[in-house]
Amino acid sequence: MAHLKYKPVPRKLSKDITLLQHINNGNTALQYIELKVIKMTSGAVFQEKLGKQEVCIVALAGKITVTDGEQTFEEIGTRENVFEKIPTDSVYISIEQTFEITAISEATVILCYSPSEKKKATALIKASDNTIEQRGKYQNKRLVHNILPDTSPIADRLLVVEVFTDGGNWSSYPPHKHDQDNLPLESKLEETYYHEMNPRQGFVFQRVYTDDRLLDETMTVENGDVVVVPKGYHPVGVPDGYDSYYLNVMAGPTRKWQFHNDLAHEWILTRE
């Protein structure tokens, strides 16, 4: 059985900061993505020096101030929890920089990393910069906030997106994959899903599978879990009565999201 689902295992970094998740190439099969989820009390300060990695800092909930020592973005973050379903603010910081996050209120922050050799400019990605999409129809509806889409010139490798799926709907559906470096038909992108549920005791189902079924895992995913997708199709089903949120990080050799649908299920898109 592949190890694809990671439960939150809280670990104190200081008395004011708790590391909830740390996904990296030491505990997963991923080579292009690292992910940290941290919980900060008001006034807490988190500092880190980047090596050959870029990072997108997402103010998931609460307010934070972010600085790279030259630019400072004061009191960013727009919501107290993700299920307000409004976009939030993020900050992109490039390689070999030192950054600092100060919690203005109690805050949850996601740090999305990818290897990079390219020096880019620090950038505030305001909530108003997010493009918003309503995707799908019938029982395949979801709300999308694009934080770092492949059309954005800000990042070198990272793509970051938020997806909200109401109860009784499917998401990342029909099943699609992006695990072949075969542009323009398909790009190779690893992916992570950070999940939250409303109400919190809810769950969703996520399947990750390949055409040959050598990888074929179906998981019950709960609040705070992370699912890693090194390859394969990866649909999500949301039971009635609960709403789903997930934040996707994608990265690979080329910063292009070009996916391939599972042909057995592509007919779903042609229904009238």
TrEMBL record:
UniProt xrefs under InterPro entries: Deoxy-glucuronate_isom_IolB (IPR024203), IolB_Bacilli (IPR023770), KduI/IolB_isomerase (IPR021120), RmlC-like_jellyroll (IPR014710), RmlC_Cupin_sf (IPR011051)
Tell me the pathway: Polyol metabolism; myo-inositol degradation into acetyl-CoA; acetyl-CoA from myo-inositol: step 4/7
Top-rank lineage group of the source organism: Bacteria
Q: Cite the entry's keywords alphabetically.
A: Isomerase
Gene3D superfamilies on file: Jelly Rolls
* Pfam families noted in UniProt: KduI (PF04962)
Q: Which reaction does it catalyse?
A: 5-deoxy-D-glucuronate = 5-dehydro-2-deoxy-D-gluconate
- What processes in GO biological process is this protein linked to? inositol catabolic process
> Recorded GO terms, molecular function?
5-deoxy-D-glucuronate isomerase activity; glucuronate isomerase activity
Asked if the keyword Ribonucleoprotein belongs to this entry, the reply reads no
Q: Does the keyword Isomerase apply?
A: yes
What the record says about family reads:
Belongs to the isomerase IolB family.
Role this protein plays: Involved in the isomerization of 5-deoxy-glucuronate (5DG) to 5-dehydro-2-deoxy-D-gluconate (DKG or 2-deoxy-5-keto-D-gluconate).
This protein is called: 5-deoxy-glucuronate isomerase
Q: What's the source species for this entry?
A: Enterococcus rotai
What gene, per UniProt, encodes this protein?
Answer: iolB
